[in-house]
C-alpha cells in the first residue's frame, strides 16, 4: 500500500511547477509532456495499486479445506 502512495505522490510532484513568476507572462512549460501525460498516468497507476492492495487477501496463501469450513460453519441439523 505504501508503494501505491509513493507512486501517487510522485505523480503529484511531477505535476507541480511550470508556472510563471509574473502573472502577465504566459509560460508554455505548463503544457509539457511530463505534466500532461506522465504525471496523471502515474497517479492513476498509483490508485490502481491502492485498489489492488485493498482487495488483496493476505491469507490467500494458506488454503482452507472443507473440514475447516465446516468447523467454522457447522450444518444445522434442526432445519426444516
UniProtKB/TrEMBL annotation:
The keyword Transmembrane applies. InterPro entries: DUF3098 (IPR021448). Residues 61-80 are annotated as: Disordered. Keywords: Membrane, Transmembrane, Transmembrane helix. The chain crosses the membrane at residues 36-56. This is DUF3098 family protein. It comes from Leeuwenhoekiella aequorea.
